[in-house]
Structure to design on (556 residues):
């Protein structure tokens, strides 16, 4: 005989009770994130915090395992970092997905892709921008973000202060940064949307500070490109104005950083046309505006895609195809797309 | 009217297996004799099935479909019946009369109950998982209790919400290699972020491969 099961009613009641408890728990921060009583450390400005974080990464030698959670995907990598005066080197060995080794020597980055025996060489000149950028006062980070210590926590065995970087408007995301207390090293980072939902987070799951990492060894590994075809993305520095583009409505806080004419890293057999990349930044988040000539065979699906904290927007604009990418809310990408105009 | 209501109640009780004895026999006999009663029986069965399983049910009797269904169900392993076969037979009064097969035949009396047991088991497992997760302090991303103070001048000039973006462009992009190329090109200039070193750079170097 069939009855509406009593056991099912009990389970539903229990679930509802737990859901109400769970729901209210979500609005409460874990005890470890409550404001710490021992803030003998005075509140610093956003710039101070960012400088400290940046300096820490330059002064330390460390090794560990780094984990990234974004858009439902998880990735991890072994990392080694060594600093010797002005020379900085990093090695990142991916532990998930296709094998990949990334080496960085100051602003030179070499990525080995063993699967197709390709090594991609890039010069990330933007890495040299900071901290000069911050010190120059050109940045408006402090105008658009507020820093606040929101407590203490422990990550990968290290005590950290949790710094909240709260955006002042809805054009950008917020951040929660775990700063290792002794060194100032960022050991965990979360990107938050307006409602406080974590869009993406990355952290050391395991970390050793001041380990003997050999810079000579890393240099040797980075220089060992035998058997690999070296690819260098073509980049021609230019200006948007020279290319015939203006942004008629600037998005608050975002400044144009640089503009390049380039061919994108080839991933298919198809010929890559020259693409314009116009980069904007508010100091914490960046947006790239890619402009290409519209090709109906390649372009057709306009839309928005969101992967963790990074969103993309594609659309046709007359004879052009626009792709906007950034670690910003989708409405910000739209504002950029709508603000772009051909010079008359 | 009163009698009609009572008869409807009896059919409903029969569907739920909640009558026995003389009442049971009288109701079964009524079902055998009355076309309307059988329709009512069928209706209550459909309601019960939809409420219990949430599945759509074939409403019109497609004999060919019924025959195929019956045949394929016969191929399946017979579930252990915990109820008596008397109840099984009693759910299908038409069998007594004409031997015609109906969708309800395909399902044993306690199959729904068996399914509920599975659902209950899964639900209990989910409960234990939630409790265990709470205890282990899995709440890393709770919503910030602070709310943004938005200056009026900073309000977006474009008031389109993200949902409207999707609606206007009608589709959400599916990841493709072309898009990956744009993402990689964008990350190349991640240095414009003060959070780039080390977290930003490590994040890009770690995560990039997931999309390949």
């Amino acid at each position: 005989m069939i009855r509406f099961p009593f056991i099912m009613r009990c389970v539903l009641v229990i679930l509802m009770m737990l859901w109400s408890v769970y729901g209210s728990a979500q609005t409460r921060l874990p005890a470890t994130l409550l404001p710490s009583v021992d803030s003998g450390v005075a509140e610093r400005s956003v710039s101070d915090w960012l400088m400290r974080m940046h300096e820490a990464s330059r002064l330390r030698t460390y090794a560990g395992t780094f984990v990234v959670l974004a858009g439902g995907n998880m990735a991890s990598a072994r990392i080694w970092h060594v600093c010797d005066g002005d020379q900085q080197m990093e090695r990142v060995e991916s532990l998930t997905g296709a094998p990949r080794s990334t080496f960085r020597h100051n602003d030179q980055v070499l990525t080995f892709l063993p699967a197709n025996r390709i090594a991609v060489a890039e010069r990330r000149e933007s890495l040299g921008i900071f901290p000069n950028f911050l010190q120059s006062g050109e940045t408006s980070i402090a105008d658009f973000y507020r820093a606040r210590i929101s407590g203490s926590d422990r990550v990968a065995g290290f005590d950290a202060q949790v710094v909240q970087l709260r955006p002042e408007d809805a054009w950008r995301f917020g951040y929660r940064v775990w700063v290792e207390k002794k060194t100032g090293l960022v050991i965990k980072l979360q990107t938050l949307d307006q409602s406080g939902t974590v869009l993406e987070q990355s952290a050391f799951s395991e970390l050793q500070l001041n380990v003997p990492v050999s810079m000579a060894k890393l240099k040797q590994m980075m220089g060992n490109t035998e058997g690999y075809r070296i690819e260098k993305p073509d980049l021609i520095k230019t200006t948007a104005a020279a290319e015939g583009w203006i942004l008629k409505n600037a998005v608050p806080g975002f400044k144009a950083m640089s503009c390049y004419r380039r061919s994108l890293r080839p991933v298919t057999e198809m010929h890559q046309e020259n693409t314009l990349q116009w980069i904007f930044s508010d100091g914490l988040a960046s947006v790239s505006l890619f402009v290409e000539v519209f090709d109906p065979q390649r372009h057709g699906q306009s839309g928005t895609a969101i992967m963790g904290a990074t969103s993309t927007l594609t659309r046709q604009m007359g004879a052009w195809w626009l792709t906007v990418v950034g670690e910003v809310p989708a409405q910000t990408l739209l504002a950029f797309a709508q603000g772009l105009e051909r010079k008359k | 009217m009163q009698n009609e209501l009572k008869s409807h109640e009896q059919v409903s009780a029969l569907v739920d297996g909640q009558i026995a004895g003389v009442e049971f026999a009288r109701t079964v006999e009524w079902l055998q004799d009355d076309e309307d009663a059988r329709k009512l029986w069928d209706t209550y069965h459909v309601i019960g099935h939809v409420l219990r399983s949430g599945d759509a049910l074939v409403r019109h009797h497609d004999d060919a479909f019924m025959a195929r269904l019956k045949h394929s169900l016969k191929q399946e392993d017979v579930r252990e019946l915990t109820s008596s076969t008397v109840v099984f037979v009693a759910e299908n009064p038409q069998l007594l009369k004409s031997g015609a097969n109906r969708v309800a035949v395909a399902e044993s009396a306690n199959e729904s109950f068996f399914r509920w047991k599975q659902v209950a088991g899964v639900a209990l497992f989910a409960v234990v998982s939630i409790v265990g997760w709470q205890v282990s302090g899995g709440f890393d991303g709770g919503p910030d209790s602070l709310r943004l103070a938005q200056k009026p001048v900073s309000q977006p000039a474009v008031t389109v919400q993200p949902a409207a973006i999707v609606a206007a462009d009608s589709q959400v992009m599916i990841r493709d290699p072309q898009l990956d190329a744009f993402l990689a090109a964008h990350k190349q200039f991640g240095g414009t972020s003060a959070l780039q070193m080390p977290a930003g750079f490590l994040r890009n170097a770690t995560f990039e491969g997931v999309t390949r």
The longest helix of chain A spans residues 6-26. Confidence is low (pLDDT under 50) at residues 25-42 of chain A. Chain A touches chain B through 127 residues (CB under 8 Å). Residues 312 and 325 of chain A are 4 Å apart (CA to CA).
